[in-house]
Amino acid sequence: MTSMTVNGKPMRFLMDPDTPLLWALRDAANLTGTKFGCGEGDCGACMVHVDGEALRSCLITIAEAEGRFITTIEGLSRDRSHPVQQAMVAEQAIQCGYCTPGIVMAASALLAKTAAPTEAEIKAGIPNLCRCGVYPRLVRAIQRAGRVARRSETISAAPAPGINAGDAAREVPAISAPADQSD
After folding, report:
1. Which of 50, 58, 82, 113 has its CA 20 to 30 A from that of 34?
2. Which UniProt keywords apply (predicted)?
3. Quick one: fold of 83-157?
């Protein structure tokens, strides 16, 4: 049995100790925001924080994560109010969205270490691949998130999203086929 703290909660995994953390999070903990991309550590879609450091969860086993503090995209900010999430939306740095959770985790770890990263520091600190190619907007978003985190800027264009359950499940009236109008 492997134990660790995931998103602030103690968790035990009754899985093979060689199981990649990615699969323990996705399959056993149902934290599906951490994405499977390549399984080889090349793309960064599975990035999580391990003791505050951005690591590819496909490359670390649950045995290696024993006793450590893991933060997934779900634990970073439940209401998507983290400065990186807000800036990604405001700068339109999200296309298909598949790589977004991993990028947000890498960027938030970078900003925790470097409050005002340069473009070069961002390019070196964000190893993630984005098939949609949002890199110029990504650099702007991370720099903007740094300004928001330092409280030198606010983002009013990207409020934390919320969906009213009534709006998500509205009943749609039935539409009948037009009557035959032949003469």
Report:
1. 113
2. 2Fe-2S, Iron, Iron-sulfur, Metal-binding, Oxidoreductase
3. DNA polymerase; domain 1 (1.10.150)
